[in-house]
Write a structure and sequence with these properties.
mainly alpha, WH_DNA-bd_sf, binds iron/sulfur cluster, DNA-directed RNA polymerase, WH-like_DNA-bd_sf, 3-stranded antiparallel beta sheet, flat, Arc Repressor Mutant, subunit A, 464 residues, 10 strands, nucleus
Length: 464
């Protein structure tokens, strides 16, 4: 091992590897630090020689280097090969730690050697034994400077490796109180019992993040609680049937109605005035049209009467002539031709009338299949307009994107002060034999006591 201190290039390379998040660097990345191949090779060899870096080979046979701090180097300097091996495996386990049984499997060392190595490493304050809430009997070791993970400590719900039920109960009650106070309106003195918010004006139900913030503000505990921890408490309340979780977007429907700004009196008056105006204009135009139509109809009727009279006379004369001259087959042919002409004229009428009809249909919003594509194109922006016009949910505006889209609200508990349906007689196996003065009688009934006691307890709770 070289006794000289590392030169500038070697120090630069060592610092560069140390600065990476996992203190590792691939052989290719070292080229960016020292581009000259011979100099790089010399620096790597020196650092490997003094133990400031270690070679790692992954499953794809890619070589990388892991930097060793100077403090670590000093601490592990006096370790023998077995102790070094045990230490490296403990180090690799990180904050999860490693069980001595797994250590034995990985190192293939005898249990006595492992125990001795662990004793030495613990004495040198390089590793420590950590308890596990999941497996209290297991001997788990991890590096001295690391904090054990939640899987080992159990998170905030464990104190001295024991489930802190009192702490959980206390926090759960606080969470419930917060959700209940938000869900129901505040009771007014001398009334307001069982009052609920109107469905058109729902309260802003809290999210898990909101409850977490309120717990933090209340400074009930010094333990840092995350949103997941608060959700665990809320899940307990959900399972107890005290609260319920609902998606925040569902309530936006009520919100769109609730948040629509009420029209002012001037707006209403303006609308009414416009309506009256349009009605009067329509009436005028209708009366004018009606007048015109009547006039034209009267004119047409007088002229058409004369025409029809003349036509009828001519026709009669013509028919008489034809019956005399033409055979029956010819009349049949003419009838057929007439029919054909009638059908053609009908169809042409339909063709000519088709355009205005179509236009009318379009105006009414009834679509023909050929219009489907265009109507779809029209439909999209209309939908967009509708969407854009909708007011945003207060939950989104208040809590932003930090929520997972769920809010919590309390469930109103129903107390039956003396439920007759729960009376013991309804389920009593001795009901058929029960009668006054008999061996089984209501006077000596043993079931009634519990029922009456429960009823009086409910009454006391209600008074509170
Ligand atoms: S009075 Fe008591 S014993 Fe008689 S039927 Fe009712 S519950 Fe049963």
């Amino acid at each position: 091992m070289s006794k000289r201190p590392p030169n500038e290039l070697e120090s630069r390379l060592h610092k560069a590897i140390l600065s990476t998040p996992n203190k590792e660097m691939t052989a290719k990345d070292t080229e960016t630090i020292i581009s000259e191949p011979n100099a790089r090779e010399r620096a790597l060899n020196f650092l490997l020689g003094v133990g400031l870096i270690k070679t790692l080979v992954d499953s794809n046979r890619r070589v990388s280097f892991r930097a060793v701090t100077k403090g670590e180097l000093v601490a592990t300097k006096d370790l023998n090969g077995e102790e070094n091996l045990v230490f490296s495996h403990i180090k690799a386990a990180g904050s999860e730690g490693i069980w001595t049984k797994h250590l034995k499997t990985k190192t293939n060392l005898h249990q006595t050697i492992i125990d001795r190595s662990l004793k030495t490493l613990t004495q040198k304050r390089l590793v420590k034994r950590v308890p596990s809430v999941q497996h209290p009997t297991r001997k788990i070791y991890m590096l001295e400077g690391l904090e054990p993970s939640i899987s080992l400590t159990g998170g905030p719900w464990y104190t001295d490796n024991e489930l802190d039920t009192e702490f959980i109960q206390h926090l759960t009650e606080v969470c419930y109180k917060f959700v209940r106070d938000t869900t129901f309106p505040k009771r007014k003195e001398g009334g307001g019992e069982g009052v609920l918010y109107a469905i058109s004006n729902p309260p802003r139900y809290p999210t898990a993040q909101d409850i977490r913030s309120s717990l933090k503000k209340a400074k009930l505990t010094e333990t840092e609680l995350s949103v997941e921890h608060v959700e665990m408490l809320l899940n307990v309340l959900i399972l107890d049937g005290k609260i319920e979780k609902l998606p925040a977007f569902g309530t936006s429907m009520w919100d769109s109605i609730a948040n629509d700004e009420p029209e002012s009196d001037s707006d209403i008056e303006e609308k009414q005035r416009k309506k009256r105006k349009s009605k009067s204009v329509d009436d005028k135009s209708h009366s004018k049209k009606r007048k015109k139509r009547n006039e034209s109809e009267s004119e047409e009727s007088s002229s058409s009467e004369d025409e029809s009279r003349i036509k009828r006379r001519r026709k009669r004369r013509k028919d008489d002539d034809e019956t005399e001259s033409e055979p029956e087959s010819a009349t049949l042919k003419r009838k057929k031709k007439k029919k054909k002409v009638e059908i053609e004229s009908d169809s042409s009428d339909a063709m000519t009338d088709g355009e205005p009809k179509k236009k009318k249909r379009k105006k009414l919003g009834v679509l023909s299949p050929s219009d489907a594509s265009s109507s779809e194109e029209d439909e999209v922006p209309r939908r967009k307009r509708k969407y854009l016009g909708r007011s945003p949910s207060p939950f989104l505006s208040r809590f932003g994107d930090e929520t997972d889209g769920s809010v919590y609200r309390a469930i109103k508990e129903e107390h039956l002060s003396l439920g007759w349906s729960e009376a013991p007689c309804t389920l009593c196996p001795s009901f058929d034999f029960c009668k006054g003065g008999g061996p089984v009688n209501p006077k000596d009934c043993v079931y009634y006591g519990e029922w009456l006691a429960a009823a009086s307890l409910n009454a006391i709770e209600d008074q509170e």
